């Protein structure tokens, strides 16, 4: 009898300890711009559930993706490393844009995350958590070897193959889907089932929705609402609005499930986007740029953390943070060991979340893109350096209020004071030569230390006359 009682007590103690471990719900959206939620200032898109969660935690106003487009940003996020370490520089490895317009041979890099790189999901899984990824993966054919027990919809594809309505060929784990069911709702339904199944065990859910990536496939159920709604001064894209509201409704559904199962108060919720918004459909003003550019609109993203009993509600943090910081942050939040041999470029944000800013040391953030990304074309192009490419080969450093861009084709430098010029309109490189020189030396030293490849070979197919004519045709003279 005594043995039975001791055994029963030990089982109860184990269950209690398991329940005391915090869960992690990581809401990771695709192409959601810095101002594409209500709490960040959208005047057309509606996100009441996200706004509520943001208000119950800490909002980061200077949060950055570690790259300006999908695959490299995700590789940085999962590995905790800047692009030169994992070598995923772009979506695919082929040259982008017209050959006649590229002065240099790009660095192709790779298109698959090295399975020898440990992800934070592997660390969390090894600590006894049930782990799931649901939605976009984009880093290999199968996410399961990277630390996940469950995969729904994750493949190497960067967008829904046939749009947001069925059929969904080659999208694993969706099960039977009715012909009028929106893909975001389908994935959220699987997430909801996962949360209900894991009430008595610690879990981590990487909810990495395809939304709001192209195709801009409107949710037909709520399309009439936005067609009749007055446009805002900042936002007015009807299809995008339906996609964003569908995400928000899904978040609301999951919150209700966490409340119903009594697990909301022991669940950490982190919200982030993989890069800036899709230029032809949204606007990050006053930020310059959009997805694919290394101006603020291409890399600054919405972020909040809701952590009950740790993060006080209604807090805002203006300290610059990066996607590479989430690896050590997640591990410290959950009490999980970091990999011993793998270098990590980020630092844990837990001191900031705990209100211990005095323990924070100012550091520089870096970006490296030794490739090309062609322009969307159209009216957004003339806001950038040229209408042919969203970005040409470059590196960028931010330190404090200063941000320096270096473009390798011509050795051009751009320096901005983000405190007074968040829109990066006034290049101060000639007025602040000492600041530019200091940042340039630090950027050079970082590239050397991390082994960042810099394109130096001239492209034999480059045609300066064709490039100039294309730029002048678009109405921009350089």
Any idea what the CATH superfamily of the largest domain is called? Alkaline Phosphatase, subunit A
Protein structure class: alpha/beta
Q: What's the rounded overall pLDDT mean?
A: 94
What percent strand?
Answer: 15-25%
Radius of gyration over C-alpha positions, nearest whole angstrom = 23 Å
Taken from the alpha-carbon principal axes, the silhouette is globular
What is the first-to-last residue Cα distance?
A: 88 Å
Stretches with pLDDT under 50, minimum 5 residues: 1-18
3D structure, described in words:
Mean pLDDT is 94; it is low at 1-18. The chain has two domains: 20-363, Alkaline Phosphatase, subunit A; 366-473, Arylsulfatase, C-terminal domain. The chain is α/β, with parallel strands linked by helices. The chain has 13 helices and 15 strands. It has helices at 2-20, 48-55, 70-79, 83-86, 120-126, 183-197, 223-227, 238-260, 296-299, 326-334, 350-353, 433-450, 464-473; strands spanning 23-29, 58-64, 130-135, 150-152, 203-208, 267-273, 300-306, 315-317, 321-322, 365-369, 373-374, 389-391, 394-399, 402-407, 412-417. The strands form three sheets. Strands 1, 2, 3, 4, 5, 6, 7, 8 and 9 form a nine-stranded mixed sheet that branches. Strands 10-13-14-15 form a four-stranded antiparallel sheet, covered by helices on one side. A two-stranded antiparallel sheet has the order 11-12. The relative contact order is 0.18.
